[in-house]
Amino acid sequence: MTRFASFADLRAACLDLPSGDEEAAARVALREGSLTKPPRSLGRLEETVAWLARWQGKSPPRLEAVEILVFAGNHGVTAQGVSAYPAEVTAQMVANFAAGGAAINQLARVAEAELRVIALDLDGPTADFTVEPAMEEAEFLEAVAAGHDALSRQADLVVLGEMGIGNTTSAAAIAAALFGGGGARFAGHGTGVDEAGLKRKQAAIDAGLKRHEAALNDPPRIAAALGGRELAAILGACLAARRARIPVLIDGFVSTAAVAPLKKLRADALDHALSGHMSAEAGHRLLLQELGLKPLLDLGMRLGEGSGAAVAVLVLRAALACHTGMATFAEAHVSDKMRNR
Amino acid sequence: MTRFASFADLRAACLDLPSGDEEAAARVALREGSLTKPPRSLGRLEETVAWLARWQGKSPPRLEAVEILVFAGNHGVTAQGVSAYPAEVTAQMVANFAAGGAAINQLARVAEAELRVIALDLDGPTADFTVEPAMEEAEFLEAVAAGHDALSRQADLVVLGEMGIGNTTSAAAIAAALFGGGGARFAGHGTGVDEAGLKRKQAAIDAGLKRHEAALNDPPRIAAALGGRELAAILGACLAARRARIPVLIDGFVSTAAVAPLKKLRADALDHALSGHMSAEAGHRLLLQELGLKPLLDLGMRLGEGSGAAVAVLVLRAALACHTGMATFAEAHVSDKMRNR
């Protein structure tokens, strides 16, 4: 079992990170240049294969064991009327995941990925962050460790997703705490709150930012004060993946906000992570810009559960199939001489 | 065998088109609303399932028989030094398709689609359009008919792609003829011409537009004078798909330019077609805007062969899996009551 003894201990772990394997990435690029297509004409497909190789330290990379981890948690801030759905829906959806009836179950099957759902104390929601920290230090570190331990060390790729009624409010609060702008900048309609609900959401975020002003200079404290157990677990899993050099596909707004504190601690801390998609949730575009992440897909999805990143797994499978299966110019007797005039 | 006797005959066929099945699309939307997710939270995934149902006339739609048709042709305009590769590469790549070594072979396998390659008189390139019409009326209509006949009437979805050294020049010329702006507006680097090559390409397009000025008020004549056999065949296949109510995924710049004359003839002629992706080829974004098409993917690909649209097939498979496989709120005992305050 992973143990982080304190915020300081977690910070230290987040600063001590391995680099990518540039040689593996270079071997991928070399082979790409020899394949029967104009140079770089597969665009991001080529880039993603090099990225997989860099973080797996393997050329060619593999996508045999793809794991989707969905963390679920409940949020005291729902007391502020910030969500379109009642908090019971979190547990109901976890049951739906177990029964195979949710979107992510279908997408995991299509993506040939293993889905694992980790429910984090759904009967004990975090505290309402407008009143007190969502989690005390020990509680937060326990959720981080749960995420850290959930990762299989044998995965070739991990997708990080979440479920938690109220968690776009936590995500927007973390984003605003890290990058400024307050509730108005990052709050969106989430699962579908009306205009009055959106106003309550913005007000709750602004109240939380004010309440926890003293914590806002420290990314782990921000994640504890304003976040949620599932967000903390995603942070832990993303950190564990980096330590094990496993590439990560991040899902939408909530997952992106969950890992954002890592980037604030260390500029290259998310280099092993790719943004799977741009969510339709209002704050996601801004947050991705702040993090310098360029999403693979933009399909107007806003479901969470890892769903957008699961679709992006298909793009990676297509990219890898081209990389490993295509003939070289020499093998196919195709002229790779550019015309000289 | 399909026969179009004249430009006028083809025009008449392009104007006599079936509509979509709005009832099937509505049944899809009704089911989507009952599934365990916030309304419309799967974004374009939900839209594409409704679109498949509308054009297949089936709810739920099917993706059992997915067909990728790649048409290949050679272009006399290569004499103007418009391409980075010599014209022999068209036939070499057709051999590569047959041997299974090209990108589209790998992508077809991942997309579980049947790939069929139709080479159109590669030893007889079209005429150099800067000097004379690329194709005479009968030659053009024969290529349209070849495309029309290539389509299996049993397909659930067809992807239209192409291979032809020099064909981004034809595509840019068609786009400029239909939408204005000359060679400077739609010409790009294609497979990788340098700046001098790009200048030659723009000049060739402008010379072609001037040379065939008298034909520019008639979309089929534009396609004959400035196009190529593979572009004409794509137009024919797209028309055949509409008549058979088979949904079409259009690939990149060349494929989009190939079907653009249909839209100019009749505003709703491409409603059964979805743009699979936005190519990195410079003119594609502009052309999609002119046509009012919103691509599913934007991955910086610029290979042709149907490759971008083949990746988009994966998105459709993901969308359909959610639609058919998810539980409803009632089945999963999940509360679909929005919170009332």
Number of helices of chain A: 15
**H-E string of chain A:** HHHEHHEHEHHHHHEHEHHH
N- to C-terminal separation of chain A? 65 Å
User: Largest interface, with Cβ-Cβ < 8 Å?
Assistant: A-B, 67 and 67 residues
Low-confidence stretches of chain A: none
The computed structural class of chain A is alpha/beta
Q: How many extended strands of chain A? A: 5
Mean pLDDT of chain A: 96
C-alpha geometry of chain A:
globular
Q: Which radius of gyration of chain A do the C-alpha atoms yield?
A: 20 Å
Biggest beta sheet attributes of chain A: 5 strands, parallel
Strand content of chain A: 5-15%
Topology overview:
The structure is a homodimer of 341-residue chains.
Chain A: H1 7-15, H2 22-34, H3 44-56, E1 66-72, H4 88-99, H5 103-110, E2 114-119, H6 137-150, E3 157-163, H7 167-179, H8 182-186, H9 195-211, H10 219-226, H11 229-243, E4 248-250, H12 253-265, E5 273-275, H13 283-291, H14 307-325, H15 329-332
Helix pairs in contact in A: 2-3, 3-14, 5-14, 6-11, 7-9, 7-10, 7-12, 10-12, 11-12, 12-13
